[in-house]
Structure formats: C-alpha cells, structure tokens
Amino acid sequence: MTHRAAVISALVVLALLVGGRWVLAREPIEAIATEQGLGPPPEATVPSPSPPEPTPSAASSPTPTATAVSPKTPKPRSGIGPHDTRRLTGSRKVALTFDDGPHPVWTPKVLDLLRRTGVKATFCVVGTEVRAYPALVARMIREGHTLCNHTWHHELDLGTKPEPEIRANLEATNREIRKAVPGAKIAFFRHPGGRWTPAAVKVSRELGMTSLDWDVDPQDWKKPSADAIRTRVINQARPGSIVLLHDGGGDRNGTLAACPAMVEELKRKYGIVLLR
Ligand SMILES: [Zn+2]
C-alpha cells in the first residue's frame, strides 16, 4: 500500500467512525450503551473501500454487530399467567370478560350490547350479587355466555386464607349460581384483583374450574373516558388476548360507550371467541 493510499484509508475509516458516532448520538441512552459495548455501528463496516483495518473497538467485539441492533419486536407474552392460570384464548381470536356483576343497571345493557353485536362473553360473577339478581345470571346462560366464579363477596385476600376457607367461599358462590340456574356449568374462577395464590388455583382446579387470568386490562374500573378504554384495549390487544372489563362495581357508562367501536375493531382484527 502506498503512503497516499494509506492516508486515504485512514481518513475514510476516521470519517466513518465520526459519522457513526453522530448517528449513535441521536439514539436513546440505552442504545448508545449497548452499541458502544459491542463495537462499531453496522454502517462503519459495510462500504469500506480499503482492506478492513481493525479498530480497537472492533477487535474487542465478541459478537457480530448485526445482532446488536434488533428491530423493535413485541415482547412475546406467555399464555400461562401467574401460578399456572390461563391468560390467552389459545387461538388468534380474543375473548371478552366482564367482572363484578351482575348489576341491575349495567349488566342488562352489556347483555343487550353483546346480543346486538353477536358476541358471547364470560361473566365473572360475585356470589352476593348473584343472590340479589339471579334473573340476570339466568339471562347470561340463556343467551349463551360463559360463567366464572369471582368469589362470594369479592374477597381480595381470599387466596391467602386456609384452603378449607377458600373452598367454602367458592362452593357457596357456585351454589348460589346453581340456585339461579340449576345445573349451570361454571367453567372458570377468577381471583379478585388477580391476586392469585397457589392455594386458590389448586382449590378452584379441585372444584373443576380453570383459573382465568387476563392479558389486556384497560383499568375501566377507574372510570377513564370511553375513548381511553377503547384505545387502551386496542393498543394492548394481540392475537389470543383475554380482555378484562367490568359490568359491575360502579358506574360503567365509560365501558358501555367504549364497547361498540372496540368490539367491532377486535372482531375485524382478530375475531372474538367464547371461552369454554
Ligand atoms: Zn373483580
């Protein structure tokens, strides 16, 4: 290599390094740290006209640079929730679940809406509310929806109690449901607040119920606007999502108003399936 060629090569490498650094400087802090630890940016190695002259950082690079920059891929979500609970539907289609009812005002409106849109859902019902409004539970079953035990009185700490107490609570709730609808199938159990414990999951399994977690939670119980609920659900949803909504426990105007457009969009993007 002539002196002139060597100078040109050095200048080219220098220019690429400086250029690379400028590119890096616009990246987020984490990206800079990662990339600097792994060697030069990809563009510094591609168009080099001179024989590859090892730079200090390239020499110490343990892995190919190409793997250092991964495009933003969504984090894969497991179909298994805490303590072996179920978090996804098992197919591409998503499922809707409504908790804390039945409620004399909101549940009929949710049922009307589901009937209008031709969608079936899962209702996680509370024993005391079932006792107060048994006809609504009968309507859920009559219209083809799935039932889920949501404890006797929405006890958030039930899972921390001794197993016999958990069992008595869940059995009392199932008894009340079957008083409303003799022979009703109760396929699922959902712990209030998602505060799953191994004991709660074990007892529900022994009673023939699958513990039903969720994958999408728009926090509709905090009463955000209908727009916020819809946007959160659509943004969080992915194939197989189980969506947590509420038909009881407070003013559900936001949830109701969010539903028509949200349900149509979920139908179009994924399809909606009934959990069984
Ligand atoms: Zn609840």
UniProtKB/TrEMBL annotation:
GO molecular function: hydrolase activity
InterPro entries assigned: Glyco_hydro/deAcase_b/a-brl, NODB_dom, Polysacc_deacetylase_ArnD
Chain segments carrying region Disordered: 34-90
The UniProt record lists the keyword Cell wall biogenesis/degradation: no
Ranges of biased composition (kind: Pro residues): 39-55
Domain of life: Bacteria
EC numbers for this chain: 3.-.-.-
Keyword terms, alphabetized: Hydrolase, Metal-binding
Range of residues in the leader sequence: none
Biased composition (Low complexity): 56-72
Ranges where the NodB homology domain occurs: 92-275
PANTHER family in the record: CHITIN DEACETYLASE 1-RELATED, GLYCOSYL TRANSFERASE-RELATED
Name of the molecule in the record: Polysaccharide deacetylase family protein
Organism, scientific name: Phytohabitans kaempferiae
The organism's taxonomic lineage, starting at the top: Bacteria, Bacillati, Actinomycetota, Actinomycetes, Micromonosporales
